[in-house]
Amino acid sequence: MALSHVNQHGEANMVDVSDKAVTTREAVAEGILSLSAEALEQVQNNTAAKGDVLAVARIAGIQGAKQCANLIPLCHPLALSKVDIEFTIDTAKSQIITRCRCKLNGQTGVEMEALTGVNVALLTLFDMCKAVDPAMTMSHIRVLQKQGGKTGHWHRNE
C-alpha cells in the first residue's frame, strides 16, 4: 500500500477527499501520564497551585483537537461535531489515562484530531504539575479505534 500523502513524483501533497462519501466518522485516542504520588494527590484533591488541573487539561485537549490542521501541515481543516476528553486516574500505578474521542460527518477521518487532543491534554497536565514533579513521563499515545469511511470500524487488538 502506498503512502497517501506522497504523489507520483515522491512529493508531499494534501490528499483530495472531494470524491469521498460523507459518513459519520469517529476516532478514539489515548495516552498516559505517569507522575509522582504527590502530584497525583494534588490533581485528585484539586489542590495544585495552578488550579483545577483536569478542567484546564480537558479544555486544552478540546482546543488541541480543533486546531489539528493548523499544526499538522497536510491535515484537512475539519468541522468537528464532538470532542470528548476523559481522564481515568489509576492510583495504583500513579497514572492519569487520557482519552480523546472526536466525531464528525465528513469525508475524511478524525484520528489525527483525536491524537492531537490527547497530546495537548497530556502536555497541559504536565505543565500544570511540573513544579511538583518535573520527572513525569507521557507514553502509550495511540489510536484505540476508528470508524466510518470505506474501511469501516477498526479497533486496536491488545
TrEMBL record:
Residues 14-149 form the Molybdopterin cofactor biosynthesis C (MoaC) domain. GO terms for molecular function: cyclic pyranopterin monophosphate synthase activity. The keyword Heme does not apply. Its EC number is 4.6.1.17. It comes from Alteromonas gilva. The active site is at 127. Catalyzes the conversion of (8S)-3',8-cyclo-7,8-dihydroguanosine 5'-triphosphate to cyclic pyranopterin monophosphate (cPMP). NCBIfam families: moaC (TIGR00581), PRK09364.1 (NF006870). Substrate binds at residues 74-76, 112-113. It comes from the Bacteria. Belongs to the MoaC family. Keywords: Lyase, Molybdenum cofactor biosynthesis. It catalyses: (8S)-3',8-cyclo-7,8-dihydroguanosine 5'-triphosphate = cyclic pyranopterin phosphate + diphosphate. This is Cyclic pyranopterin monophosphate synthase. InterPro entries: MoaC, MoaC_bact/euk, MoaC_sf, MoCo_biosynth_MoaA/MoaC, Mopterin_CF_biosynth-C_dom. Homohexamer; trimer of dimers. HAMAP family: MoaC_B. Pathway: Cofactor biosynthesis; molybdopterin biosynthesis. It holds the Pfam family MoaC.
